[in-house]
C-alpha cells in the first residue's frame, strides 16, 4: 500500500466517522428538542440541529466532491441563524415584529 492510498483510506474512514458522530449528535439534539423542559432548551436544540445538518452536508460535499452540498449548507446556516434570532426575540418580548 502506497502512502497516497493510505492517505485516501484514512480520509475516507475519518469522513465516515464524522458522519456517524454528527448523526448521533443530531439524535441527541432531537431528543432534547422533544423532551426539553423549557422553550429555551428547545430553541437551543434546534440551533444545534441546524448546525449539525450544515456540517453533515459539508462532510457529504467533501466525500463526493460536489459543490451543491456546500451551497445547501450555506443556505441552511443562513436560514437557521435568522430562525434562531427570531425565536430568541419572540421568547424575550413575546413578538417578533414590532
From TrEMBL:
InterPro entries: MrpF/PhaF-like (IPR007208). It is found in: Cell membrane. It is a multi-pass membrane protein. The chain crosses the membrane at residues 6-31, 43-62, 68-92. It holds the Pfam family MrpF_PhaF. Keywords: Antiport, Cell membrane, Ion transport, Membrane, Transmembrane, Transmembrane helix, Transport. Signal peptide: none annotated. Its main location: membrane. The keyword DNA repair does not apply. PANTHER family: NA(+)/H(+) ANTIPORTER SUBUNIT F1, NA(+)_H(+) ANTIPORTER SUBUNIT F. Belongs to the CPA3 antiporters (TC 2.A.63) subunit F family. NCBIfam families: PRK06161.1. This is K+/H+ antiporter subunit F. It comes from Falsiroseomonas tokyonensis.
Amino acid at each position: 500500500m502506497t502512502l497516497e492510498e493510505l492517505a485516501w483510506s484514512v480520509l475516507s474512514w475519518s469522513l465516515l466517522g464524522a458522519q456517524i458522530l454528527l448523526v448521533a449528535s443530531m439524535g441527541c439534539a432531537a431528543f432534547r428538542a422533544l423532551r426539553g423542559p423549557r422553550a429555551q432548551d428547545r430553541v437551543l436544540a434546534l440551533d444545534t440541529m441546524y448546525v449539525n445538518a450544515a456540517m453533515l452536508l459539508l462532510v457529504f460535499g467533501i466525500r463526493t466532491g460536489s459543490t451543491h452540498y456546500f451551497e445547501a449548507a450555506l443556505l441552511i446556516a443562513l436560514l437557521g441563524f435568522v430562525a434562531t434570532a427570531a425565536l430568541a426575540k419572540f421568547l424575550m418580548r413575546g413578538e417578533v415584529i414590532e
